[in-house]
TrEMBL record:
This is FAS1 domain-containing protein. It comes from Acacia crassicarpa. The keyword Acetylation does not apply. Keywords: Cell membrane, Glycoprotein, GPI-anchor, Lipoprotein, Membrane, Proteoglycan, Signal. GO terms for cellular component: plasma membrane; side of membrane. Residues 1-18 form the signal peptide. Residues 33-176 form the FAS1 domain. PROSITE patterns: FAS1 (PS50213).
Length: 238
């Protein structure tokens, strides 16, 4: 009897354990969306750039692009030392549109790894625009050495701040200044000078038509002159 009871108990326990549901795996925490400000804050040394990204709203634009774009973004991040080497008051001399253009000039609308910069065609298109004369950025790469020139500034990539499958942030030790800020815009052509005949016509039109009194005075002078000439001729004849 004891043996039968033990067998029945073992069968009951094995049946109960087989029917009990397995424990559900713990949920994996989702990674937070990429935030360019958080990346630069963590790296340190980008206080001025962070302020520009916030005031121009480009930070929000970058974060939004990373959520919606499949091509990724490459961002050249000037350090605080890079901004401090600018001419005093330079940033304050820029209007809001120029500040936005300055930040956009540091962004490529594609993800480029350090080893792939030599595959780009110059001038490289930035998010500031595609004007090759005023917004040209030329990049040459050799291995992990990347050189850049804007026609105003020459610099190199100083290192990788952050990289993932969508975003690459590279440190640069100079602010990339586009020629657009330093070349004078072509002025509108000046109107052709008016000719002497045109000026005389305008003056006569401004003075208005001659009055009857002026005509009468002119006729009186002519009559007097005619009488003098006539009297002189008669005197000579006599």
């Amino acid at each position: 009897m004891k043996l039968i009871s033990l067998v029945l108990l073992a069968l009951f326990l094995s049946t109960s354990s087989a029917q009990s549901p397995a424990a559900a795996p713990a949920p994996t925490p989702s990674s937070p969306p990429t935030d360019i400000i958080r990346i630069l804050n963590k790296a340190g040394g980008f206080t001025t750039l962070i302020r520009l990204l916030k005031t121009t709203q480009v930070a929000n634009q970058i974060n939004s692009q990373l959520l919606t774009s499949s091509g990724g973004i490459t961002f050249f991040a000037p350090t605080d030392n890079a901004f401090s080497s600018l001419k005093p008051g330079f940033l304050n001399s820029l209007n809001d549109q120029q500040k936005n253009e300055l930040v956009q000039f540091h962004i490529l609308p594609t993800l480029v790894s350090l080893s792939n910069f030599d595959t780009l065609s110059n001038p490289v298109r930035t998010q500031a625009g595609a004007d090759p004369d005023r917004l040209a950025l030329n990049v040459t790469g050799s291995g992990n050495q990347v050189n850049m020139t804007t026609g105003v500034v020459n610099t190199t990539v100083g290192g990788t701040v952050y990289t993932d499958s969508q975003l690459a942030v590279y440190q640069v030790d100079k602010v990339l200044l586009p020629r657009d800020f330093f070349e004078a815009k072509t002025p509108a052509p000046a109107p052709a000078p008016a000719s002497a005949k045109t000026k005389a016509s305008k003056k006569k039109a401004a003075e208005g038509p001659a009055s009857p009194a002026d005509d009468s005075a002119a006729m009186s002078v002519k009559q007097m002159w005619g009488a003098i000439v006539g009297a002189t001729v008669v005197g000579l004849w006599l």
